[in-house]
Amino acid sequence: MLHLDDKGSFQYTKQYKAIAFMVSFSYRANDCSNLFFRAKPIEPGDNRNFPMDFIYGKIDADFELQIGIREFQIVMTKDLHERMGLLYDEIRNEYVELNNKHL
Fold first, then answer.
1. I need a surface site. Which of 4, 40, 63, 75 has the fewest CB within 10 A?
2. How many whole angstroms separate alpha carbon 56 and alpha carbon 39?
3. pLDDT in tens, 34-73
4. What gap in Å lies between CA 48 and CA 63, rounded to an integer?
Protein backbone atom coordinates (compact mmCIF):
# COMPACT_ATOMS: atom_id res chain seq x y z
CA MET A 1 0.00 0.00 0.00
CA LEU A 2 1.36 3.40 -1.01
CA HIS A 3 1.60 5.94 1.81
CA LEU A 4 2.53 9.65 1.60
CA ASP A 5 4.55 10.68 4.67
CA ASP A 6 4.82 14.14 6.23
CA LYS A 7 8.06 14.84 4.29
CA GLY A 8 6.36 14.49 0.90
CA SER A 9 7.68 11.03 0.11
CA PHE A 10 5.73 7.99 -0.95
CA GLN A 11 6.48 4.77 0.95
CA TYR A 12 5.52 1.14 0.39
CA THR A 13 6.77 -2.30 1.41
CA LYS A 14 7.21 -5.51 -0.56
CA GLN A 15 8.11 -9.00 0.56
CA TYR A 16 10.29 -11.01 -1.82
CA LYS A 17 9.69 -14.55 -0.62
CA ALA A 18 11.88 -16.16 -3.30
CA ILE A 19 14.97 -14.41 -1.91
CA ALA A 20 13.68 -14.05 1.68
CA PHE A 21 13.87 -10.26 1.97
CA MET A 22 11.37 -7.65 3.17
CA VAL A 23 11.99 -4.27 1.49
CA SER A 24 10.53 -0.84 2.27
CA PHE A 25 10.79 1.63 -0.64
CA SER A 26 10.38 5.39 -0.71
CA TYR A 27 10.67 8.17 -3.27
CA ARG A 28 9.91 11.87 -3.34
CA ALA A 29 6.46 12.68 -4.66
CA ASN A 30 7.81 15.05 -7.29
CA ASP A 31 11.03 13.18 -8.15
CA CYS A 32 11.37 9.50 -9.11
CA SER A 33 15.05 9.77 -10.05
CA ASN A 34 16.12 8.19 -6.75
CA LEU A 35 14.47 5.17 -5.20
CA PHE A 36 15.44 4.75 -1.55
CA PHE A 37 15.11 1.44 0.28
CA ARG A 38 15.52 -0.32 3.61
CA ALA A 39 15.65 -4.12 3.70
CA LYS A 40 15.96 -7.00 6.08
CA PRO A 41 16.51 -10.69 5.51
CA ILE A 42 13.74 -13.05 6.55
CA GLU A 43 15.41 -16.23 7.75
CA PRO A 44 13.08 -19.22 8.05
CA GLY A 45 13.22 -20.73 11.52
CA ASP A 46 15.53 -17.98 12.77
CA ASN A 47 14.21 -16.17 15.81
CA ARG A 48 16.50 -13.14 15.32
CA ASN A 49 14.42 -10.15 14.35
CA PHE A 50 16.59 -8.11 11.99
CA PRO A 51 15.87 -4.36 11.93
CA MET A 52 14.24 -3.01 8.78
CA ASP A 53 17.34 -0.95 8.02
CA PHE A 54 19.72 -3.96 8.14
CA ILE A 55 20.56 -3.01 4.53
CA TYR A 56 19.68 0.46 3.27
CA GLY A 57 20.47 2.71 0.34
CA LYS A 58 19.25 4.05 -2.96
CA ILE A 59 19.37 3.43 -6.69
CA ASP A 60 19.50 6.25 -9.23
CA ALA A 61 18.85 6.80 -12.93
CA ASP A 62 22.26 5.33 -13.84
CA PHE A 63 21.36 2.15 -11.91
CA GLU A 64 24.10 2.96 -9.43
CA LEU A 65 23.22 1.15 -6.24
CA GLN A 66 24.54 2.67 -3.02
CA ILE A 67 24.11 0.54 0.08
CA GLY A 68 24.94 0.59 3.74
CA ILE A 69 24.88 -2.33 6.13
CA ARG A 70 23.75 -1.65 9.68
CA GLU A 71 26.32 -3.89 11.27
CA PHE A 72 29.73 -3.55 9.69
CA GLN A 73 30.53 -7.19 10.43
CA ILE A 74 28.02 -9.71 9.22
CA VAL A 75 28.27 -13.40 8.57
CA MET A 76 28.35 -13.56 4.77
CA THR A 77 27.27 -16.99 3.70
CA LYS A 78 27.22 -18.05 0.05
CA ASP A 79 23.42 -18.11 0.22
CA LEU A 80 23.19 -14.57 1.66
CA HIS A 81 25.66 -13.29 -0.94
CA GLU A 82 23.59 -14.76 -3.78
CA ARG A 83 20.36 -13.41 -2.28
CA MET A 84 21.89 -9.93 -1.98
CA GLY A 85 22.74 -10.11 -5.69
CA LEU A 86 19.13 -11.04 -6.41
CA LEU A 87 18.00 -8.20 -4.13
CA TYR A 88 19.94 -5.78 -6.35
CA ASP A 89 18.04 -7.15 -9.38
CA GLU A 90 14.70 -6.70 -7.58
CA ILE A 91 15.54 -3.12 -6.55
CA ARG A 92 16.65 -2.29 -10.10
CA ASN A 93 13.41 -3.77 -11.49
CA GLU A 94 11.37 -1.78 -8.96
CA TYR A 95 13.12 1.42 -10.10
CA VAL A 96 12.27 0.69 -13.76
CA GLU A 97 8.61 -0.07 -12.91
CA LEU A 98 8.31 3.09 -10.82
CA ASN A 99 9.67 5.31 -13.57
CA ASN A 100 7.58 3.61 -16.26
CA LYS A 101 4.47 4.50 -14.23
CA HIS A 102 5.49 8.17 -14.14
CA LEU A 103 6.27 8.64 -17.85
1. 75
2. 6
3. 999 999 888 776 666 777 788 889 999 998 888 888 776 5
4. 32
